[in-house]
Amino acid sequence: MNKILLYCRQGFEKECAAEISAKAAEHQAFGFARVKEDSGYVLYECYQDDDAEKLIKTLPFSQLIFCRQMVVVGELLRDLPPEDRVSPVTGMLTGVVEKAGELRVEVPDTNESKELLKFCRKFTVPLRASLRAAGVLLNYESAKRPVVHVFFIAPGCCYVGYSLPENNSTFFMGIPRLKFPSDAPSRSTLKLEEAFHVFIPADEWEERLGSGLYAVDLGACPGGWTYQLVKRSMMVHAVDNGPMAPSLMDTGQVFHHREDGFRYRPARTNIYWLVCDMVEKPVRVANLMADWLVNGWCREAIFNLKLPMKKRYEEVSQNLAMIDEKLKAGGVNAQIQARQLYHDREEVTVHIRRIWSATPGRRDER
Ligand SMILES: C[S@@+](CC[C@H](N)C(=O)[O-])C[C@H]1O[C@@H](n2cnc3c(N)ncnc32)[C@H](O)[C@@H]1O
Fold first, then answer.
1. Percentage of residues in the chain having pLDDT higher than 70
2. Which of 194, 241, 303, 343, when mutated, tests ligand 1's pocket best, judged by the most ligand atoms within 8 Å of its CB?
3. Domain residue ranges in the chain
């Protein structure tokens, strides 16, 4: 198998292709990306046979921005016979994957594929039995073993391959399924919730998203993001000239500052989270976030960068590189991740965590 299949948001195939081409080349795995506009996926074909496997091991999935899932696949299986679609799929995986821990039969995230998804659900049952009999799949689910992916792009037509549990998305189709909380003041609440699922490991939620932490929310109104922080029993400074939802103010956990988010400075030194959803030029937001982190005004930040119409991958990369430079110049060691989330449209979400500060006199952080 010498191809990498990358799932992405429909309409962002070019960005996904530009990104994988650049990052694969950094890992000396050369090839070319096949892009079909609006398909919801990209195929990166490596010139060397082993490079696809090498890439899914060495290219950190967490460093990909426009990709929701990364799978090694072989040639497209076409015209699967309706009377037995199971055997060709099982045959393609036999000898390639052993004792996988999970099977996901998936489709691109497009309207056209919705019908196909119904077939995928039905097809999963006989395929699972066949893969187990062939030793491709374990008899029980295991999160520590590879995941088998069967990706239908049309009826009877699929890519087949696997992803690695330590370097993939844990979610079906790379999308966390979240339910809109009916008492949240805006739908964008799901963006921050998804960001928590994608960027913060579940076993660290209690420490990093736990009760009693202080947070600042820039561009907070009407309060969808603040809602997520309040729900986790945090105290929130909400900065925005607009009105906050009364239900949030009634909790007593929210201080509303009617101020410009670019001028607001925290009065306290105990802010853990900075979140920011202000609709502004990406470069302005990126600079502001870097300033907060360099000055030690927060420990972690989650914010959106709105995308321009063209050269979107380049624009995001430049902003991330600028933040990285500013942090380094400020003596701040940080982990930076960015992802176009399912709930992001023309934007990406960035997460930055200060690891420790090298500046003399500044308190070290784990
Ligand atoms: C997309 S909305 C935020 C939605 C919010 N995150 C939620 O979940 O309900 C953007 C908000 O940013 C605010 N905003 C834009 N520029 C701002 C600035 N310079 N200072 C403070 N707020 C700003 C707007 O008033 C608007 O309420």
1. 97
2. 241
3. 3-174, 189-357
